[in-house]
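Quick one - inputs below.
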Amino acid sequence: MATVKEYYQSQPRGMKILFALVGIGLLTILVRLATGLGATTNLSDDVPWGLWIAVDVLCGVALAAGGFSVAAAVYIFNMKKYRPIVRPAVLTAFIGYLVVVFGLFVDIGKPFSFWHPLVMWNYHSIMFEIVWCITLYTAVLALEFAPAFLERFKWEKTLNVLKKFIYPLVIAGIVLSYLHQSSLGALFLIVPQKLNHLWYSPIIPQLFFLSAIALGLAMVSLESIMGSRVFKREYEMGILQGLTKGVAIVLAIYLVVKIADLAVRGSLPLVFTSGAASFFFITEMLVGVLIPLALFARKQTRESVNGILTASSFVIVGIVMNRFNANFFTQAGTGTFYFPAILEFLVTIGLISLAILLYRLAVTYLPVFPEAERT
Amino acid sequence: MTTNNKTSKGVLVDLTRCIGCRGCQIACKSWNERSTKDTVMSGVFTNPPKLNSETYTHINYIEQPQDSGQAWHFVKDQCMHCKDPACVSACPVNALEKTSTGPVVYHYSRCIGCRYCMIACPFQIPKYEWEKALTPWVQKCTFCSERIANELVPACIKVCPTQVMHYGTLEEVLREAKKRQQDSPGRYHDRIYGEKEAGGTAWVYLSSVPFEQLGFNVNIPDVQLPSLTWASLNKIPATVGGFVVALSLIAWFRNRGSKGEQSAQGKEK
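Output:
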C-alpha cells in the first residue's frame, strides 16, 4: 500500500482531483447498483432517458469519432501528415467506447443482463444494431490500439501479425463507426410525432454521422493542443491546420444539408415558431456551426493555437447540445420537467474523469505520441 | 409482423357509454395482482393521475364547461395493442411480442431495461418499476392474454356494467364501430380513434366529441412506425458492402506505389 500512497502523493494536483472524482463516481455507481434507478436518478415514466444516455452514450460515442476519421485519412487516403495523431485519436476513441460501455451498464435497468442482445436477436431494433456496433467496434479499437501495448512490452511477433491486418481493421472500424454514429440518430426515427421536426428527419442518421465527424476532429485538435501543453512539446501546427480545415469543410457540408433538409420538408418556419425548441435549435446551430465557421473563415483563427482551440471548443459544445436536444425534445411532450439528480451528475463526472485519467495514464506509460515522451 | 383482422382480437371502446365507475380499474388490479401506489389529491377526479407500473388502466375524468353547466367525459386508458407495435420493433431482445391473437405481451426474463420501448411508444404506455434495484420490469396492460388464451374476455370488459367495451375480432370490432356511427347519426364524432393511428390499433375508440378534447394524441401519423426504423436497418447490408468495396478501392488507389516505403517504416519501428 505504501507504494500506492507514494504514487498518489507524487502526482500533480490535477491528477489527485481526477482520482478523487473517479472514486466518487465509482462509489455512486455502487449505490446505484444497490438501490436502483428510482433511488439514484430523477428519471421517471415521462422521462426515461436522461443525463446518462445524453452524455455517456450519445456524446461519448460522437466524441470518439476522431478515431475512425483520422485512421481513414492516414490509411485509406494515405495522408501521411496525420500519422503522428493516429494513435492519440484511436486511444481517445477506445477510451470513449470503454466509458460508453460502462455508462450503458450503469444506465440499463438490469445491468447484469447486458449480454442479452448478443444472443437474443431482434434485427428490427435500432437498439440491437447499436449494441452490436458498440461491441464490435470496441473490439476493433482494442486491436487498433494494441500495437502501443505490444511495442511497450516488445512482443514483436504478435505486433508483426497485427500489422498485416491493419487495413481490414481500419476499414471495419470505418464501417462500424458509420453504422453506429448513424444508428444513434436512427433511434429517433420511430418518434416522428414526438421529436420536433427541427431535429426529426428521415436523414437524421446521416446528420448524426456528419456532425460526429466534425465533433471528433475538433476533439482531436483539442487533445493535440492540450497534449502539447501538458507535455511541453511543440504545437503540431501543420496537423492542427489540416484538422481545422477538415472540421470547417464537414461543418459547411452539415450546414448545407441541414438547411436543405429543413427546406425540402417545409420545416424552415419551425426555426422561428417552435418556442423553446426554436431557442435551443438556434443556439445549437450558432454555437456548433455558424460561430465556428465564421471563426475558421478568418486567417488569424487558423494560424493561432488559441484561435483553433476556441473554435474547436465551440464545435464540441454545440454538437453536444445537439445530442442533448434530440434526446430532451423527444420526451418534452409529456410536460414533465427533468433535471438530473446530484448522483446522476456524480456518475457522469466520474466517468468523464475516468476517461481523462485513462488517457493521461496511457500517454504517460505507452508509446502514444511519436517521440514517446515519458514523464 | 402483419396482424390478421379476421383472427386477431380487438376492442371497441364506446366512450359515450362510460359512467366512470372505475370497476375496470379494480378488476384489472385484481386479475393482474397489481398493488397500489401512494397517490395525492391533484384537483381532478382521475386517480391515479397517470398510469404507472402498478396501474395498467385507469379512467381519465374530463370536465368540459358547457352552456348548461358541466359536461363529463370518461376516457379509459390502457395499452392500445397496436397492429404493428413500435415497442416490439424497438426492443433489442424480443422482450415484447405481438401475439397472433392480438395482445402485445412482455417477457421479463429477456428485458435488459434499456427503456427504448417507452421512448418509442406513441401512446406513452410502457411504465417502469423505477423503485426496484436489480430486477425492474416494464409493466403495461397485457390485454389479459392468459384469459384470451382460455377463451375468456379480459377482466375489465367482464366487469363493465354498461358494456362500454365491445370485444371481438378486429374486423368485427371495426364493423361494429361503423355500424354504430351509421345507426345513430349525430351521436358520434366521425373519427374512429385507433383505426389508422400508427398503422392501426387493436383497441379503437368512439366518442361524441373530437378526440383532441379528451386528451387523445391526434398527431400520431397513420404510418406503421416500425417501418421508419426498418427503412434505415434494411440498408445495412448494402451499406456495409458498398463501404468495404469503396474504401478498399480508395485505399489501393491512394497507396499504390508507396508500399515499399511503408514496410520500410514498419521495420524501422
